[in-house]
Design goal:
The protein is an alpha/beta fold and 312 residues long. It is built from nine helices and 14 strands. The strands form two sheets. Strands 7, 8, 9, 10, 11, 12, 13 and 14 form an eight-stranded mixed sheet that branches. Strands 2-1-3-4-6-5 form a six-stranded parallel sheet, sandwiched between helices. Helix 1 packs across helix 9 and helix 5 packs parallel to helix 7.
């Protein structure tokens, strides 16, 4: 039996390293590794891509685009009947035509679409939490596509790239920092596209002094939503949408009204909760998604997509 061969283009980066950790002890795939001295050599990379059944791109956007072009040129050089499948962990192709969005829990049929896809765009970490919270409620009619939304979120510093990681680990970065306040964050287009929004949300990302973990929040005025749902209505919508999911859990609100951002660090899980109240004139809720920004928000999602695409 020939094992599927996987090449990770960018295996030395944060996401790539975590994918390697998840795959290196598996018996059902074979990793193709490049000589560290040749990681930026186009010919050496193309040779491995030609051998691969699936290529995972863990690269900056422009480099990912170049690697996709290299794969597209593979023809007589490939050892397979067709070009290798691609999972792109950059943001270059998340809303591009011809690419399937790699959030298997998005909607009915999405996992099957990923399984049959040639090219899959891995979701952004923040976008994973936001879309997980919003898409079921938009589909159910509880949130109108043009509803004005504000999306505060906080991530561990490992999602910010090598420079940010080094700054935090050297003690040269602030304990907490808001960023992308100009509303140009690269996750906004995919949030709108796959949450089903027509009005651009106000997105408020931040980074804090912990390595891995993430909280995404959606505050809502329930009396302004169509149908004026209760917090339990929203909870039950999630329960139905994610029933049978391997990685997404719908949990009751914590008794003390607190959420630890680090609790899922090192896992590939995603937890969803609805905190709400109706008494004393309160018709409000806060939807909360918790995940590891490098787990379900990056490397874990890539492995999940790989399993679907290769039938593992």
């Amino acid at each position: 039996m020939t094992l599927p061969q996987i090449f990770i283009d960018g295996e030395a980066g944060t996401t790539g390293l975590q994918i390697v950790q998840r795959l290196q002890n598996r018996y059902d795939i074979q990793l193709l590794c490049i000589d560290p001295a040749l990681r930026k050599d186009p010919a050496a990379k193309a040779e491995l891509m030609a051998q691969a059944d699936l290529v995972v791109l863990c690269l900056p956007d422009q480099d990912a685009i170049q690697s996709v072009a290299t794969i597209a040129r593979l023809s007589s050089t490939t050892t397979h009947d067709s070009q290798p499948k691609i999972i792109d962990a950059s943001s270059a192709h998340r809303t591009a035509a011809g690419w399937v969005y790699g959030f298997a829990e998005l909607a009915r049929g999405q996992a099957q679409a990923i399984a049959s896809a040639q090219r899959v765009a891995n979701p952004g970490c923040y976008a994973t939490g936001v879309i997980a919270l919003l898409r079921p409620l938009v589909d159910a009619g509880w949130i109108a596509p043009d509803y004005p939304l504000c999306l505060p979120a906080v991530s561990g510093y490992s999602g910010g790239g090598r420079g940010m990681i080094e700054a935090y680990e050297l003690g040269q970065a602030p304990a907490f920092e808001l960023y992308a306040l100009g509303q140009q964050h690269k996750h906004i287009p995919e949030i709108m596209a796959y949450a089903g929004l027509t009005r651009r949300p106000v997105f408020m990302p931040s980074v804090a002094n912990f390595r891995q973990g993430m909280l995404v929040q959606v505050p809502l005025h329930l009396d302004l939503l169509p149908g004026q749902p209760t917090a339990d209505d929203l909870h039950q919508t999630y329960v139905q949408h994610y029933a049978g999911s391997r990685w997404v859990s719908v949990l009751p609100p914590s008794p003390d009204g607190k959420i630890d951002a680090l609790a899922l660090a090192g896992t590939d899980r995603l937890d969803l909760r609805v905190f709400g109240g109706m008494g004393d004139g309160r018709h409000q809720a806060v939807l909360v998604a918790r995940l590891d920004n490098l787990g379900k928000g990056a490397s874990g999602a890539a492995v999940q997509n790989m399993e679907l695409m290769l039938g593992l």
